[in-house]
Every structure is written in C-alpha cells, then in structure tokens.
Specification:
A seven-stranded antiparallel beta sheet has the order 16-15-23-22-21-20-19. A six-stranded antiparallel β-barrel has the order 1-2-3-6-5-4. Strand 20 and strand 21 form a beta hairpin. By secondary structure, the protein is an alpha+beta fold. The longest helix has about 80 residues.
C-alpha cells in the first residue's frame, strides 16, 4: 500500500470514528451510483458484407432519455462509414443493448451526440458553478484495461453492467488543441473516452477524452472537455441539458444540519412552551386576583345587606313591642312577623355569602386562528427555495406555485393525505427513475420535495406499490384520504433510508410575492 492510499484509509477511519462518537450513522445517498444509471458503453462494429472487420468501444452518458453524448473519436468510423459501422448503446442496467444513430458530430471539440430508442435513460445534470482547485472529482466509464482483464467474450461488451468509478481531484484548466479542458487526477484509461467527469454530488463537470502519457514514473493526468464546450456543442445540436449551479452539500452535512435545525426547533418550541406556560400562569394569577377581589366585594355586600336586614328586623321587633304595649296587638303581630323574617333573611344572607375556590379559575383561552392565517392554507402561494435548508444535486431550483385547499387538494388536481400534522403526497412517475415525497406544512408554510434517485429494480417495486393507490384525483372524502395515507406509508417503507435531494421552500401568498 502506498503512503497516499494509507493516508486516505486513516482519514476514512477517523471520519468513521468521528461519526460514531457523534452518534451519526455513516449512511449517505450514493449520488454517483444514481448518475451511473445514465452512463452507457458505446460500441462500434465495422462490417463489410457479413464479416466484422473492426471493433471499438468507449463510454457515454445521457443528456435526454433517448440521447447520449460521447467523444467524437469514439464514433469516428461511424461518421466516416455510416453504412458499414453500427453504433451500439449498452445501458448500465437491464438486459439489452440498443442500436444508436449519430445525429451530431464535432471533431474539433471531440464531441458527438447519439440517438436511440427502446429504452429511456435518466439524464445527467450539468454543474455550471465555479470549481475550486483540489476539489474531489469522480470519473465514470468503461476502461479498456478492466475489460481486457475481465471480459471472457465479445458478448461481454454488449451486456449491461455498471460503470467503473475512480476518484481524483481538480488540477486546473487547460486548453487542448483549442478546446477548453479540465485537468484532473481521477484514473481513466482507453474506454473511458466519452464518459462523464462528475463532482461528488453526481453532476457533470466535463467529458473525459484523453490522458497524459506516464513515462519513467511520471504522474498520469486526465483531460475532460469542459462543461462550457459541452453546452456550446449541445446548443448547436439543439439539444437541451439540465443545469444546476448550487454548491454541492454532502448528505452527511445535510443530515447534520437537519439535526441541528431540529434541535434548534425543539429548543425554540420548548422556549415557546415555557413562555406559554408562564403566560398561562400569569393569566391565571391575574384571573385569581380579579376573582378574589370580586369575591371579597361580593362578601362585603352580602354581609352589609345581612347587617342592614338584621337592624331592620330588630327595629321591627322593637316596634311590635311598642304597638303591643299600646294595645294594638294585631298590628304588633304583623310587625313582629316582618321583623323575624328580616332577621332570618339576614342570617340567610350571612351564611350564603360567596366563598373562594382557586380551582374553579381557568386560564384565558387561546385566540382562534385568524382569518388571514386560514386564508393562507386555502389560497394561492409562491414557494421559494431556502438554500440553507436544502440539498440540491440535480434538480431545478425555480419557484414553485402552490394552491392548497383545506381538504389537501393541491393545484386543483393532486390530492395529498394527512401525515403528522402536514399534507403529504408521494409521486412515483412512470418514465423517470425518481420518487418524490412532497410535504406541505400549513403551520409554517413550508413545502418540501424529498427526492430519491432509484435503480430500475427499486422503481419497479415503487410502481407496483403505486398501482395500489386508488385515489387519483382530489377528494373531500376523509376515508379515501386515510386509505391514500396507508398506501403511501407502504411506498415510503420501500424507499432507501437516506434521500438524494431535499428541496425546502418557503411559501408566501402569491399576491404579496408578486409585489
């Protein structure tokens, strides 16, 4: 083992120990494997009559579901002798290879575009942001020296298999025969020609095309046609390619940031709960003080009234005695009865004076949700990406228009199901190799698109589970939404533990956003 390899192993062990000490599982989304599903082997077979007179191969990658880019020198014979040279496109997955057709050829840039049919490949995305010296890079392709060591027959060259990956670093920009190229240290060989050079998030940086000669112990370097040259070539060929310029964030960094954000949110929630408890306690104390004051005032009023009735009753009894002494017994009887009634009323008032019980005092209730907040849930919104909360690898970061009803109908056509206080829908497309978990949290006005870039086998399983989803349109039926939630749980259980992308958006009312 050389010193650099040993140092690399030590670093990996240190990283593993650090993650274990931090309580972090070293799981990660394999963005390179996801990109590799769009990488192909390009085979050229020269035929004269019924006899094969020439054979060559290289690598390529999808820029559209039915189109791949490779080097011009890989398919040069097909450009020269289109009637005698067959181009084969061999995907990294599946059981078959497919015949391709050359539709654009640029020998100056050493780029070619091939079209085929019979299968749809997941296109790769081009990174258009800045590159830093020493940045990690990964080459994918089918190096010929590996094929020579492992291929047992010519059939091995047209049998789908995953591409070989090798890692290196960015060593600078150069110009090679008038073409802008990236110099890198990822190991490539003949056969890698036309394959992608990727960043650690699986975005295309360039197209591998050549290597330096390593004589007498010289280090070997690879040349990759720069992304700017690829963009210009595809523009002239009238072929679009997905682009992204967001800096690559590793899945470990994203998960750590999510944990930190979750901990911060928990602390903020605890602080809000403490503040709410204090507010409730203060409101209760104030309510108790007010109730006590009102009780004391009422007791004093009862006692004053009782005293007054007692005095009036005593005066009445005294008056009755006076009337009796004057021989007016009938009047004395009625006055005496009235006096007794007044004194009994005094006694009743005294003993019925209100008591005070703190347990009967309740805190002030929470205010009802405002009409404006309710309108947000059912209104039109424009959702803008929050980069510091997102992990973007290959997706567009454009704003997302969103309209959500109180029943979870989104944009008038897609029904979401209730999930942990939010609205959720899992989308499993028929053509793409991506599953998206879409979530809208009305309380925080947050829209999240968590994307999983899956293999053909994983997509087949996800589509099988999707076929069991019966709710295909918006519905106010709670039972139907509950069934949708159950079906989606089955799909989620079949997904990998770790996502590839997480796009987090902040949603604001569309009118306010337009202003």
């Amino acid at each position: 083992m050389n010193s650099s390899a040993g140092l690399g192993m030590v670093r990996r062990l240190l990283l593993l120990v650090t993650l274990m000490l931090a309580g972090i599982q070293p799981a990660r989304a394999d963005d390179i494997a996801a990109a590799g599903r769009g990488v192909v082997r390009i085979v050229t077979i020269a035929v004269v009559g019924d006899e094969v007179v020439g054979f060559g191969h290289g690598s390529g990658f999808a820029v559209a579901p039915n189109r791949v880019v490779t080097n011009a020198h890989v398919v040069e014979l097909a450009a020269r002798y289109p009637d005698n040279v067959v181009i084969g496109v061999v995907p990294s997955e599946g059981q078959k290879s497919f015949q391709g057709r050359l539709i654009a050829f640029d020998p100056d840039r050493d780029l070619a575009l091939i079209e085929f049919s019979g299968v749809r490949l997941p296109p790769l995305t081009l990174f258009t942001g800045p590159l830093q010296e020493g940045e990690p890079m990964v080459a994918l392709g089918y190096p010929g020296n590996v094929d020579l060591a492992t291929a047992q027959s010519a059939a091995a060259y047209i049998t789908p298999q995953s591409p070989v990956r090798s890692q290196g670093n960015f060593a600078g920009r150069r110009t090679l025969i008038g073409t802008s190229v990236l110099l890198h240290t990822a190991s490539i060989a003949r056969g890698n020609s036309g394959g992608p050079l990727l960043d650690r998030c699986g975005r295309v940086l360039g197209v591998n095309s050549a290597i330096t000669r390593a004589e007498e112990g010289d280090s070997s370097f690879g040349f990759a046609i720069a992304g700017s040259e690829l963009t210009a070539f595809l523009r002239e060929a009238q072929q679009d390619i997905a682009t992204v310029n967001v800096e690559c964030v590793s899945i470990e960094e994203r998960l750590a940031q999510d944990r930190s954000a979750a901990e911060q949110a928990a602390e903020e929630r605890a602080a809000r709960e403490r503040a709410e408890a204090e507010r409730t306690a203060a409101a209760r104390a104030e309510a108790i003080a007010q109730a006590r004051a009102q009780n004391e005032a009422a007791r004093e009023n009862y006692m004053a009234a009782a005293a007054l009735l007692l005095v009036l009753g005593a005066l009445a009894v005294g008056g009755a005695g006076l009337l009796l002494s004057r021989g007016r017994s009938r009047e004395a009887l009625w006055v005496a009865i009235g006096g007794v009634v007044l004194m009994l009323g005094a006694v009743a008032l005294f003993f019925s004076r209100p008591s005070f019980d703190e347990s009967t005092i309740e805190a002030i209730p929470e205010p009802a949700e405002s009409t404006a907040a309710a309108a947000i849930v059912a209104g039109r919104m424009l959702c803008t990406l929050v980069p510091e909360r997102s992990r973007v690898t290959v997706s567009s970061t454009n704003d997302v228009p969103l309209e959500v009803t109180a029943e979870g109908c989104v944009n008038g056509r897609t029904q979401y199901a209730e999930a942990n206080g939010s609205w959720e829908r899992i989308l499993v497309p028929s053509e793409e190799q991506t599953v998206s978990v879409l979530t809208f949290d009305a309380a925080t006005r947050t829209y999240t698109n968590t994307r999983y870039l899956l293999s053909a086998e994983q997509m087949s399983r996800a589509r099988e589970l999707r076929s069991q989803v019966e709710l295909k349109q918006c519905s106010a039926d709670q039972d139907a939404r509950a069934q949708l939630a159950t079906r989606q749980q089955a799909i989620r259980a079949a997904l990998p533990e770790v996502f590839n992308e997480k796009l987090v958006y902040r949603c604001d009312p569309a009118v306010a956003a337009a202003e």
